[in-house]
Design goal:
This protein is α/β, with parallel strands linked by helices and 553 residues long. The protein contains 17 helices and 29 strands.
């Protein structure tokens, strides 16, 4: 008998409270490397306390709360605390540098920014102080900055104390002054179609835009993802993908949330920690981008761990090589699946099912999510195309975003009058109803699962002295799918080296955006009307690298 699948109108807070009441003593979140464990009941109580803490510093319905952190234990606490009181969690890429953070802070109207110390190549605390110097001299709760007038609070996620910032312990203490009645009143106002999460993506044009996603969008996308892999409350999912990305916060966290299972967390990807966590906790599922699976399979201690507990997982984020999927299947015992979509589709649009034959799972991106209509549309005429004809992959349904924050024009560019979200990707449907991704209309580079929009890097490099013109395009990479290539035309008489270009970028833009390949050219391939044919730059780059004897890896 086929299981009846329905969409749910529960909010994220509703789901959390459901499991806290239904299976209060079941483990929800586990950090195996430090033996930190939360049951559903314990976590729900901490979320409530944190929500009251946020209320105490002025967070309310519709307030934007930024989370800039690796997968630390309280990352999800802040997400659900914001969700329960109708605030919007704005997820911030952990690789961001100060200029990128400043853009996001202005565009997203963040009221309260929650941060950790930072990652190995940059201190978030130092960057925030540089951006908001008044923090060091202002009393908490009375902070003001002329450049960022909407920012009222900075919270340090941890016990350390920094001038002008709250820490989590202080926030929890302040929350004790908030009456239950006030908290419960705010909870009752939250509806499933309210925006709960905003993720920044480059989209099809311009600078990053805030994708507004509702409880209904992401909870149901996570639920259906789990259904395709036969998830139950008995599963344990090892999560080593970043939570700021839709792969982590939706396909992983929302899957666990809607199935009542256990989320085994890895704070920052380390193949040894992943393997050890799977072995110790007997995880049944694992997610990752291809480079993560490669690192796990090639780790010198791989054979020391018992991975026979694994049964399924998702490989996504960039091109998934068939041979790699085969090795994951054979050596890690995972019936691997792949999800295709984009942040704007919450993110899943199509998904291979665990029951699909291996060749379907490794050569296609599967069938549409339930309650989602996927169409292949001619980008020139708008005509819906038949099987085996390439066009733009588009979808409509419950999973389509609410829109781009404060950018109706950009929203209308990607969601047409019939409600179809245009992906910018080329693909086709085969005779069996499975979809294949065949190319890209837009210029976006996808490096190891990270979306990189060339214009952002081009605008940055234009400020480098000596640069007359610059075009950025993806160069194929076996390891990352694509690498960033910068094609630079210099002013007459100017000289620059590849290393000088990269050094200019270091510390100013995220590491994954720094061009791996810097190529100096005198002209670009043009159309008859004089437009740059950016898609041809890939071949130009490959030929130039070959002539230099440089092997693309």
């Amino acid at each position: 008998m086929t299981k009846q699948i329905e969409l749910s109108d529960r909010t994220l807070g509703d789901w959390l409270e459901y499991w806290a009441e239904t299976t209060p003593d079941k483990e929800y979140i586990v950090y195996s490397d430090r033996n930190l464990r939360f049951t559903w009941k314990q976590f729900n109580e901490r979320v409530d306390d944190m929500a009251k803490g946020l209320i105490s510093i002025g967070v309310t319905n519709g307030t934007h709360v930024g989370i800039w952190a690796t997968n630390v234990p309280d990352w999800l606490t802040f997400l659900f605390a914001a969700a329960k009181i109708g605030a919007v969690a704005v997820t911030v890429n952990t690789s961001y540098k100060q200029t990128e953070l400043e853009y996001l802070m202005k565009d997203s109207d963040i009221h309260t920014l929650c941060i950790t110390e930072g990652v190995f190549d940059g201190s978030y605390v130092d960057m925030v102080y540089s951006m908001l110097p008044e923090l060091k001299t202002s009393q908490r709760g009375y902070f003001a900055n002329e450049k960022f007038p909407q920012v009222k609070n900075v919270v340090f996620i941890g016990q350390e104390k920094y001038r002008g910032m709250y820490n989590t312990a202080e926030l929890l203490l302040l929350g004790q002054n908030v009456a239950d009645e006030r908290f419960n009143t705010m909870k009752t106002k939250v509806k499933c179609h309210d925006t709960v999460n905003m993720q920044y993506t480059s989209g099809t044009t311009g600078f990053p835009k805030g994708v507004m996603l509702s409880h209904h969008n992401i909870a149901n996308n996570g639920f259906l993802t789990g259904e395709h892999m036969h998830f139950t409350a008995d599963d344990k999912l090892c999560v080593c993908v970043p939570l700021f990305h839709c792969f982590g916060v939706v396909l992983a966290t929302m899957n666990v949330l809607t199935h009542g299972c256990t989320q085994v967390m890895v704070e920052r990807f380390d193949p040894l920690v992943v393997l050890a966590s799977i072995h110790k906790e007997r995880c049944t599922a694992l997610y990752g981008v291809p480079t993560m699976f490669i690192a796990e399979l090639s780790h010198p201690m791989f054979d020391m761990f018992d991975l026979t507990c694994l049964r399924t997982g998702i490989m996504a984020g960039s091109l998934c090589p068939i041979e790699l999927m085969r090795k994951v299947n054979e050596k890690m015992f995972i019936e691997i699946t792949s999800v295709y979509g984009l942040t704007e589709s919450s993110p899943g649009m199509t998904h291979t099912r665990i029951d699909d034959p291996f060749d379907v799972r490794c050569t296609t991106v599967g069938r549409p999510f339930e309650f989602t209509e996927v169409a292949v549309i001619d980008p020139e005429t708008g005509e819906h195309l038949p099987d085996d004809v390439q066009g733009e992959l588009c979808c409509r349904g419950y999973n389509v975003m609410k829109g781009y924050y404060k950018n109706q024009e950009a929203t209308e560019e990607v969601i047409d009058k019939d409600g179809f979200l245009h992906s910018g990707d080329l693909g086709k449907r085969d005779a069996n109803g499975n979809y294949l991704v065949t190319g890209r209309i837009k210029d976006m580079i996808i490096r190891g699962g990270e979306n990189i929009y060339p214009r952002e890097i081009e605008e940055f490099l234009y400020h480098l002295e000596g640069v007359k013109d610059v075009q950025v395009a993806g160069i194929p990479s076996e390891k990352y799918g694509e690498e960033v290539g910068a094609f630079i035309i210099l002013h007459d008489g100017a000289t620059l080296t590849e290393e000088e270009v990269r050094e200019y970028c270091r510390g100013k833009i995220a590491r994954h955006k720094i061009p791996r390949y810097v190529l100096f050219v005198t002209e670009y391939p043009l159309t008859g009307s004089g437009k740059i044919q950016k898609f041809k730059l890939k071949d130009v780059g490959l030929n130039m690298l070959k002539d230099k004897g440089i092997e693309v890896i």
